[in-house]
């Protein structure tokens, strides 16, 4: 990704999603004000994909807090819990980038976690739709 910021899709003022990021994107994300990076992509999903440990090392070196919560298909309870833990830990000035291959699993994990936090399903689906993600099939 040549300019990771250009590909971010905001779901809320604090959380944006995107497709695959690379270790070289981390300094730019931090410079843009992001403090967290949540990787919802399993290692080895496709050839040439940077592994989670490599991305986490680069993220932490750039000043981001990195979390790996891999989802295969619809996020399971563990992925949703890890995503919610990040949302709960974020301060009012923190911003996070969630990513997977396309951003869809990250958008679903965010919405499922936010639903557990009491946000209405329609509000979450609307926010995801504005970002380009159809969560109609996600159980909220």
Structural features, described:
With 140 residues, this protein is an alpha/beta fold. It has one domain: Alpha-Beta Complex (Protein-Tyrosine Phosphatase, Chain A), CATH 3.90.190.10. Helices cover 38% and strands 13% of the residues. It has five helices and five strands. It has helices spanning 26-31, 52-62, 77-89, 104-116, 121-130; strands spanning 9-10, 15-18, 36-39, 65-68, 96-99. It has a five-stranded mixed sheet with strand order 1-2-5-3-4, sandwiched between helices. A hairpin with a 4-residue loop joins strand 1 and strand 2. The longest helix is centred in the middle third of the chain and has 13 residues, at 77-89. It is globular and about 35 Å long. The termini are far apart.
List the helices and strands and how they pair.
Blueprint: E1 9-10, E2 15-18, H1 26-31, E3 36-39, H2 52-62, E4 65-68, H3 77-89, E5 96-99, H4 104-116, H5 121-130
Parallel strand pairs: 2-5, 3-4, 3-5
Antiparallel strand pairs: 1-2
Helix pairs in contact: 3-4, 4-5
Pfam family, one: BLH_phosphatase
InterPro entries: BLH_phosphatase-like (IPR005939), Prot-tyrosine_phosphatase-like (IPR029021), Rhodanese-like_dom (IPR001763), Rhodanese-like_dom_sf (IPR036873)
Domain Rhodanese: 84-120
Summarize the structure in short.
The protein is of the alpha/beta class. The protein has helices at 26-31, 52-62, 77-89, 104-116, 121-130, and strands at residues 9-10, 15-18, 36-39, 65-68, 96-99. The longest helix has 13 residues, at 77-89.
């Amino acid at each position: 990704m040549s300019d990771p910021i250009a590909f971010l899709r905001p779901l809320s003022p604090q959380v944006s999603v995107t497709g695959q990021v690379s270790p070289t994107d981390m300094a730019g994300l931090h410079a843009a004000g992001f403090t967290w990076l949540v990787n919802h992509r399993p290692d080895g999903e496709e050839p040439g994909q940077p592994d989670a440990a490599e991305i986490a090392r680069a993220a932490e070196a750039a000043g981001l807090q990195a979390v790996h919560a891999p989802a295969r298909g619809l996020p399971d309870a563990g992925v949703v819990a890890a995503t919610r833990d990040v949302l709960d830990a974020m301060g009012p000035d923190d911003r996070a980038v969630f990513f997977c291959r396309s951003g869809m699993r990250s958008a679903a994990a965010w919405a499922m976690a936010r639903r557990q936090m009491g946000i209405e399903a329609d509000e979450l689906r609307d926010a995801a739709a504005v970002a380009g993600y159809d969560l109609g099939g996600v159980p909220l």
